[in-house]
Amino acid sequence: MTGAREEVLARLRTARDAGGSAVPDVPREYRRRGVHAPGSAAAVERLTGTLTDYRATVHRVGSEDDVPGAIAAVLGEASTVVAPPGLPSGWLAGVGASVRTDDPPLSVADLDRVDAVVTGAAVAIADTGTFVLDALAPDQGRRAITLVPDHHVCVLRAEAVVSSVPEALARLDPNGPLTFVSGPSATSDIELDRVEGVHGPRRLDVVLVAPM
Predict the structure, then answer these.
(1) What percent of the residues of the chain are helix, what percent strand, and what percent coil, each to the nearest 5?
(2) pTM score
């Protein structure tokens, strides 16, 4: 063990003293594009399947005109809803609940009393059933508003759907906080029993805007 340790340390010293010239190039030959074209019907179908596998509920609508009705139906008997400041105003036109805009920012205690949150998303990854929230975008808002309420409703447009993780990362700004969401918050840490709602929303509904 001592010999191996000394060899590792010696290599590190050599690389350091050489100013990086002794560090070999690392080949990065992984696939950067997915099987399905971004925004394609195949990518949307793949996303629908992987989201469902993660126990999210997907509601397909044919156009953005159908979004308000879908959101209203999903929210059902919710009494209070929080929205990021830049959420399209028409999306909540049919909602019977009281809508609170996160401007000025609501406290955690206020968010804990809200039934649901409605947001957009920056991009969605079909292969992994994941969508990504960019806190810099006005229709997605602060990370806190999507983690504290028990129900998250996210609106995804077909053009935001890509096939693979590298394609998604290429569309994102790494300088801002990013939240990757794959299904409702859940853990199986305790005796391998799945418990939902531990680190975030217990219920996740996705309104997917894509021609059918």
Answers:
(1) 30, 25, 45
(2) 0.81
